[in-house]
Specification:
This protein has about 270 residues and is an alpha/beta fold. The protein folds into 2 domains: about 10-240, TIM Barrel (Alpha-Beta Barrel), CATH 3.20.20; about 245-270. It has 11 helices and 8 strands. It has helices spanning about 10-20, 30-40, 50-55, 65-80, 100-115, 125-135, 150-155, 165-180, 190-200, 220-225, 245-260; strands at about 25-30, 45-50, 85-90, 115-120, 140-145, 185-190, 205-210, 215-220. An 8-stranded parallel barrel has the order 1-2-3-4-5-6-7-8, surrounded by 7 helices. Helix 2 links the parallel strand 1 (about 25-30) and strand 2. Helix 8 (about 165-180) packs parallel to helix 9.
Length: about 270
């Protein structure tokens, strides 16, 4: 466990890690209890992801989750964190309309949740919003490649930027986000060689998910890597535990013990 006195991770910490070649570890979290465990284990960045729509609410996509939902989850996470940088996803509909809407949404997230930064999806088309948010003093993380909020546009979760034109556009978008003031950018499900090229062309840290090992850091959805979710198995996912099976077995044993009057026993009574 990491001491609560450990130095707080900031956007500058991540920049220094890129410069020194030290990899950045990032995971999602959506509640106090797991955020506290993840933070205590030494994670650098916690993403309060709009993937909460999937793993917490059971929705098919990230689209339904609202700004109020994201603020609630971020509040819970912040309460459990001492060290990690907490980045909060801006949900679908909270920034796509115009830069004023984007700024208003980002301000709500920061004021009401206590988060440290926000993340939004898109390239050149969101740069005006990025600039406005950054100018207001709010750090912004970008997100390129597979952008789950645009699933109905793409119609698939397959690898992005395999063709030359889209790969070129991704590099241009990444540089535009850096110029607009993003402190970091996530690359999701793009060819590893493209991620390497993009990472080397940027001065800001890159975080990969399904983008190979040459990014400056990696991110996974916590419930996926812990084996709590079982029906999602992309190539990039490594399961570090099988908590789903452990939880099922524990609950089944509890049910059995209650019904057999084995629980509570004499030592568990007052």
């Amino acid at each position: 466990m990491v001491s609560s006195r450990a130095r707080k991770v900031t956007t500058q910490t991540l920049q220094k890690m890129k410069q020194s070649g030290e990899k950045i570890a990032m995971l999602t979290a959506y509640d106090y209890s797991l955020a506290r465990l993840v933070d205590g284990a030494g994670i650098d960045v916690i993403l309060v992801g709009d993937s909460a729509s999937n793993v917490m609410a059971g929705n098919e996509t990230t689209v339904p989750i609202t700004l109020d939902h994201m603020i609630y989850h971020a509040q819970c996470v912040i309460n459990g964190v001492d060290r990690a940088l907490v980045v909060v996803d801006m949900p679908f509909g909270s920034y796509q309309g115009d830069s004023k809407t984007a700024l208003d949404s980002a301000i709500r997230i920061m004021k009401e949740s206590g988060g440290h930064a926000v993340k939004l999806e898109g390239g050149v088309e969101v740069c005006e919003s990025v600039k406005r948010i950054v100018e207001a003093g709010i750090p912004v993380m970008g997100h390129l490649g597979l952008t789950p909020q645009s699933i109905y546009k793409f119609g698939t979760y397959s690898v992005r930027a395999k063709e030359e034109a889209e790969a070129t556009r991704l590099i241009e978008d990444a540089k535009a986000l850096e110029e607009a003031g993003c402190f970091s950018v996530v690359f999701e499900k793009i060819p590893s060689e493209l991620a390497k090229q993009a990472s080397e062309s940027l001065t800001i840290p890159t975080i990969g998910i399904g983008a190979g090992s040459d990014c400056d850091g990696q991110v996974l959805v916590l419930h996926d890597m812990l084996g709590i979710t079982k029906d999602f198995s992309p190539r990039f996912l490594r399961r570090y535990a099988d908590l789903g099976s452990i939880i099922e077995a524990a609950v089944s044993q509890y049910v059995e013990d209650v019904r057999s009057v084995d629980f509570p026993n004499d030592e568990e009574r007052y």
